[in-house]
Amino acid sequence: MRAQFVLSEIGVGLRRNLTMTFAVIVSVALSLALLGGSLLARDQVSTMKGYWYDKVQVSIYLCNKNDAESDPNCAKGAVTEEQKKQILADLKELEIVDKVYHESADEAFKHYKEQFKDSPLVDSLTPDQMQESYRVKLTDPTKFNVINTAFSGRQGVQEVQDQKDLLENLFNLLNGMNVAALCVMALMLVVALLLIINTVRVSAFSRRRETGIMRLVGASGFYIQLPFILEAAIAGLIGAGFACVLLVGGKYFLINNWLQEKIPLINFIGWDAVAKVLPLILAVGMLMPAVAAFFALRKYLKV
To answer: Which segments constitute the ABC3 transporter permease C-terminal domain (predicted)?
Structure first.
């Protein structure tokens, strides 16, 4: 009988405040979708870092005859065979060096034509204008400074470049976008909480006669509060369900059916990452409104 009464009160409360309940559902859905998206974006950045940092190389560019006039690091002329042998020998002695690849000027010219085939500069370049280089794969990509210190300024070396620095700009941009999404999510969450509190207060005011009668017959405070708390929890759970639908739809349509085809080089997150986030979204969607309603009732409903 008590359960039936509580369920009937929940139905009455949801029907009476249908517009505000809908607003709560929408705001909770958007805020939790942003929360889930931010968590997935963080996992995506971590996955990309692990994938690309494992592939980054340190490039040691060697001087050619054209660099002698334009670059002070190559003022003594092009790199000699003895200098190249010494650089290679010193690289192989370092414990942090995993592999060393040599790229000749002809190979560099071929790779340049493949990467920038539409550039108007391709027709004006010749292989002798390209630089030889050693591509060094490190056992720990963070140890770039060891290579930089050992080979920068050495005769025959034009520049030591770390590919990781190029990736850092991308990852910093992605992290900044993630922080912006979290800020918007926090704002939406505040809006959702205010709507929940206001909805509970309006519902409690419209049913003040029923709650007064329940007090007179000796109903406990929690029993009087329970329908209001469950109303908020149900609205939040529905909103969380919509947020889960948005996340699953985003993964299927945006990532699987578009981004993976457009950007095949990126190792995107899988369904396992989405599956880990969904229970958290549902739990937050149910508990957050319930807790907000509980404290709102304690303050505004004298039970």
So the answer is: 183-299
